[in-house]
Amino acid sequence: MLLFRGVMTSKRSIIIGIFIVSVLGLAFIQYQYLKVGLNLARVQFNQQMLISSKYISEDLATKNDLTFLLGKAITKDDSYFTLSLDSLQDAGSHYLDDFLKERIWGNGLEADFTFQLKTRNNEVLLSSPNHVVYDPDDLILYPVRLEGYLPQVNGAPVTLILEFTDLNSYFLTSLNGLIIPSLLFLLAIIGVVIWVLRSFYWQRKIITTTNDFINNLTHELKTPVFSIGLATKLLEEKFQEETELVTMIRTQNDKLKQHIDAVLELAGMESKKQVLPMQKMNIQEVLLTTAQSFATICTVENVDFQYQIPEEEIFLKGNPLHLSNAVTNLLDNARKYTNESTPKVFLQVAKDQKSLSIEVRDNGIGIPKSLHKQIFKKFYRVSEKDLHSVKGHGLGLSYVYQVVKLHKGKIKVSSEIGKGTSMKISIPLIHG
Questions:
Q1: Helix (H) or strand (E) holding 414
Q2: Domain(s) of CATH 3.30.565.10: residues in the chain
Q3: pTM for this structure?
């Protein structure tokens, strides 16, 4: 068991490692997509700015109310307006700022910017309102060379410098429609995978605990089995003659011991993923012995038990002990839950060219159709009326299901309330 837990811990570490690498890889891919998106946004921004710069240059090339005001402000000519020179320049800055925002923002580029009107010698003629001097490395500049009216008024070339800061934040904001859903989906994937892994290891823990319980229980049962065997031997020596009662005690004690060994073996295979030891066998002999042994019990308990088993040899690849235990389990269930007044149990064995069918029928209380798939789960018991009048732990049918599955077979349930139950096993035969 310690080796099994060590293997599971190693597998868990590998799975967690793969999960972490996958998440990091997915995050890296998303980051690369983000970089591509930012580059595309920058290219689109530059294209839009070229278009906006063209319109700005054309609008400021002719004489109009705005360019006339700007011309007076950059030449510091306050003779036309009844304003001080500072007020004139301040008005020119505000009107030009409103004009530029209309042209740039109206073109879908709602990024914050400032501007400066400069001469060829970098002399600042006019600045945007509340202009802040930034580190040149933090600025992205878009110069617009002005032609026409303003250079003529100034008597020298004039350039409009558009200054943008922190464009990456602007681009990220514009990509929120892609970034936020990507992050949400990534978090959702991580959450679902963590939940699945936790559920998986929680179930593995339950299976480990269950197998520990079965191992402990079966080991504890070996002590009374040994005591019963010893007492039977003493009875045989005392009476000297073997009676039917002593024979039955010895036979059933041997069967109980086989059951315990089988459950231990099956629990070990379930936890260690071992392969069930198989051999070519004549299942007809196994089923006949099982039926005859069960008939003895039914005689004592006044149960009408009938069976039909072909006389010919039937060969398949299987495990005699586990197959016998599985059939015995079905017969015992049929006996326990059969009709109390007229108990009847029937075992029918048949074969065709491909498979062997083993059917166990009773005339008992039946099982609701909605629970037919549930009854093969470990520890599950039908909680209907008086079904729990028979004590048990819900391990029998789970054991049968595992044995049939390991033999590459199928088990089918047919049952109605008050009309009895039929359990039919189908197992492939050996050909040739």
A1: strand 410-416
A2: 277-428
A3: 0.48
Instruction: In whole angstroms, give the CA distance from residue 43 to residue 49.
Output: 10
| Two tokens, residue 42 | 């920058």
- The identity of residue 385, as a single letter, is K
Residue intervals of the chain classified under CATH 1.10.287.130 are 194-274
CB 35 within 8 A of CB 165: no
pLDDT digits (tens, 9 = 90+) for 350-365: 998 889 999 999 988 8
Task: Count CA within 13 A, CB hemisphere, residue 376.
Answer: 15
**Domain 277-428 indexed as CATH 3.30.565.10:** yes
Q: What is the pLDDT of residues 133-179, one digit of tens each?
A: 777 666 788 888 888 888 888 888 888 888 887 777 777 676 666 66
Residue pair 109/48 in contact (Cβ under 8 Å)? The answer is: yes
Q: How far apart are CA 128 and CA 9, in angstroms?
A: 66
- The architecture in CATH of the region 194-274 reads Orthogonal Bundle (1.10)
Token pair of 333, please? 């269930």
Strand residue runs (E) in 100-179 = 113-119, 124-127, 139-146, 158-165
Judge whether 89 and 126 are in contact, CB under 8 Å.
yes
